[in-house]
Each structure stands twice: as structure tokens, then as C-alpha cells.
């Protein structure tokens, strides 16, 4: 299957609402272009996509992922690609509505450019489900025991903020996610798990760690706050960056104004919730979400200043 030019399709057809509330053409930002290039490199056909994405707040990942899903939906309805059945799942109703409105905006902007009536393109059109004339479907739902299923087939699943899905006697994130994902065949389709971090003993943390170690089929990626270049604020001349920023500045060319933005956003590195939502290191995203037995700052220090032991084969015969 020839890979679709997602960037060209998105930027030509789709519109998006900005943080200021303006409806504009969806032109991928620097971060979104970078991530799409990563996907192209690791999945040349854009099939068999399996992603664990740990990120900071509001970097545009979910917008890009859902735009990719909508391209697949539209192109399958045009008969240019196989039929697509997809899910977009969020952790709470308010966010679910936001995701559905955004997906609808993508579809409507395409239909407007092509001069196609929505009722002509779709056979079902509700507040959480659209179905095209050829049979492709897209569901937008809140994570619960009713979400998705186990016996059907899917080609696209986007788990948004998966680290915050409920864990109760009725439903837990691991059962929900892995059960639904069995509907996506090996080597085909796309599954994105994207989230800010939460706690160290949850499903997403375990899956993220497995991906870092190369265990399983999912790739784990971390996108810290400093990769988002718009996160910057002019630092006062007298401001001296705390030692906390020394390593990240030396290794990643992070600018002083970026550090000052983070410093103020996290209330001088004292707001643990904001430190979790705008982590400098991936361990912060999880450690700061729970209540570990040992001091959190000590755990972060030793995690960031230690290395995995070098594996060596010990030849006992030489002893």
C-alpha cells in the first residue's frame, strides 16, 4: 500500500481552532512535523503503528493523531484505501466532546472544500459516531466498560490521556486498552497511546517502560516541555537559572528564556502537579504523580544521575 501524504492532505484540507478561538488552516507546527517524520521513519507504510507517547501538556499530539485518523476515514470513503473502523477515546466526557468537535471540524473543512454535503457523505451522524456510505466508521467515546469491544476489527485507535483512565472493580485501564487493541491485526492499522504521566504503578507507566526497553511491539517516546519552542518567556537580566537546568541546557541547547518559562510555570519548581505536566525528564512525569515512600526529589536526583550497569560476561575459568 502506498503511504498517504498526511502532511499535504491535512494542511490543504483541514482547519483547526487555535487557543485564541480562531478557525485557521491546520499547518503543522515544528513539533508535529518532527513527530510525523519519526512515524514515517519507523513505519514507512504508516501501517502497524504502535506508539506509547509520554508528553507535556498542549504540544499538539492529539490534534495530529486525530487528523491522521480522519485522513484514513475520508480516504477509505473515497475508495482509495481499505475501509477503516476507528476509535478515539478520552478519559472524561468534557475532553471527549472536545475531541469529537475537532474531528468534525476536520471532516467539515474537507467537505466544504470539495463541495460535498455531509448528509451525502455519511449514513450515520450522531454526537459520538459517524459512518460513511462505503462503511467506514469513527467512534469518539469516554473510557468506560462500554468502550469498543473484543470481537470486531479495528484499524485505528487513539487512547488520549490513557494514564488517567479509571481503575475500578468494574473496569481498569489494562483490560480496557489491551482488550480493544486485540481488534487491530498484527502489522496493520494504527494504535496511539498518548498521555501526560500519572503514577508509577499504573498501566501506562508499565507499558512506557516496556517500550523503552524494547519489550513488546509498542515504541515509547518522551517529549519534554523544552522541545516545544513556543514555551519561552523573557527572563529578567538578574535571573540565574537554578542548577536543576544545568544538565538539560548542556545536553540539549535549551535557552535561558525557555528555562525561565518553565521556572515560572512550575512556581519556581515547587508545584508538583505542574512539574508532572511539564516534565524535563520522563521519570518526573510518573514519580511526581504518586506518593513514593522515599523523598521525591532524592528519587529524581538519583534517577537522573545514575546509569544502567554495563552487562559483561564473566569468564569464571579465568579466575
Provide a descriptive summary of the structure in words.
- This protein has an 8-stranded mixed beta sheet with strand order 5-6-7-4-8-9-3-10, sandwiched between helices. A two-stranded antiparallel sheet has the order 1-2.
- It has helices spanning 6-13, 30-42, 61-77, 93-114, 118-121, 173-181, 203-212, 246-252, 256-265, 272-277, 282-287, 296-304, and strands spanning 15-17, 23-25, 49-55, 85-90, 122-125, 129-132, 137-142, 156-160, 190-195, 219-223.
- It has 12 helices and 10 strands.
- The model has no long low-confidence stretch (mean pLDDT 89).
- The protein has 2 domains: 6-223, Rossmann fold; 226-304, no CATH class.
- It has 319 residues and is of the alpha/beta class.
Topology readout:
Elements: H1 6-13, E1 15-17, E2 23-25, H2 30-42, E3 49-55, H3 61-77, E4 85-90, H4 93-114, H5 118-121, E5 122-125, E6 129-132, E7 137-142, E8 156-160, H6 173-181, E9 190-195, H7 203-212, E10 219-223, H8 246-252, H9 256-265, H10 272-277, H11 282-287, H12 296-304
Parallel strand pairs: 3-9, 3-10, 4-7, 4-8, 8-9
Antiparallel strand pairs: 1-2, 5-6, 6-7
The low-confidence runs, each spanning 5 or more residues with pLDDT under 50, are none
What is the terminal separation in angstroms?
A: 57 Å
Q: What name is given to the CATH topology of the largest domain?
A: Rossmann fold
Q: How many domains, as an integer? A: 2
How much of the sequence lies in strands comes to: 15-25%
Shape-level CATH architecture of the largest domain? 3-Layer(aba) Sandwich
Helix and strand composition category: alpha/beta
**Order of strands in the sheet with most strands:** 5-6-7-4-8-9-3-10
What is the N-to-C succession of helices and strands?
Answer: HEEHEHEHHEEEEHEHEHHHHH
Silhouette? globular
**Integer average pLDDT:** 89
What is the helix content?
Answer: 25-40%
The CATH superfamily of the largest domain is: P-loop containing nucleotide triphosphate hydrolases
- Please outline the major beta sheet: 8 strands, mixed
Amino acid at each position: 500500500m502506498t503511504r498517504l501524504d498526511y502532511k499535504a492532505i491535512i494542511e490543504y484540507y483541514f482547519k483547526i481552532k487555535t487557543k485564541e478561538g480562531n478557525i485557521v488552516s491546520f499547518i503543522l507546527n515544528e513539533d508535529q512535523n518532527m513527530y510525523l517524520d519519526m512515524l514515517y521513519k519507523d513505519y514507512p507504510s504508516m501501517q502497524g503503528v504502535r506508539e506509547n507517547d509520554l508528553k507535556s501538556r498542549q504540544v499538539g499530539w492529539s490534534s495530529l493523531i486525530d487528523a491522521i485518523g480522519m485522513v484514513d476515514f475520508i480516504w477509505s470513503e473515497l475508495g482509495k484505501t481499505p475501509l477503516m473502523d476507528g476509535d478515539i477515546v478520552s478519559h472524561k466526557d468534557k475532553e471527549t466532546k472536545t475531541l469529537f468537535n475537532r474531528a468534525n471540524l476536520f471532516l467539515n473543512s474537507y467537505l466544504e472544500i470539495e463541495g460535498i454535503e455531509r448528509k451525502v457523505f455519511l449514513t450515520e451522524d450522531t454526537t459520538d459516531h459517524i459512518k460513511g456510505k462505503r462503511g467506514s466508521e469513527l467512534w469518539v467515546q469516554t473510557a468506560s466498560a462500554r468502550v469498543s469491544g473484543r470481537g470486531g476489527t479495528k484499524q485505528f485507535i487513539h487512547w488520549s490521556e490513557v494514564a488517567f483512565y479509571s481503575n475500578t472493580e468494574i473496569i481498569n485501564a489494562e483490560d480496557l486498552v489491551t482488550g480493544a487493541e486485540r481488534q487491530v491485526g498484527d502489522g496493520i492499522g494504527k494504535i496511539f497511546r498518548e498521555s501526560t504521566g500519572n503514577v508509577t504503578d499504573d498501566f501506562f507507566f508499565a507499558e512506557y517502560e516496556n517500550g523503552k526497553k524494547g519489550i513488546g511491539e509498542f515504541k515509547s517516546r518522551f517529549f519534554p516541555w523544552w522541545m516545544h519552542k513556543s514555551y519561552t518567556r523573557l527572563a529578567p537580566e538578574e535571573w540565574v537559572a537554578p542548577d536543576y537546568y544545568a544538565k538539560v541546557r548542556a545536553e540539549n541547547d535549551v535557552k535561558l528564556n525557555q528555562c525561565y518559562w518553565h521556572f515560572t510555570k512550575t512556581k519556581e519548581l515547587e508545584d508538583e502537579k505542574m512539574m508532572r505536566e511539564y516534565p524535563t525528564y520522563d521519570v518526573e512525569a510518573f514519580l511526581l504523580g504518586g506518593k513514593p515512600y522515599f523523598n521525591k526529589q532524592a528519587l529524581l536526583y538519583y534517577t537522573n544521575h545514575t546509569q544502567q550497569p554495563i552487562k559483561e560476561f564473566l569468564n569464571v575459568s579465568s579466575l
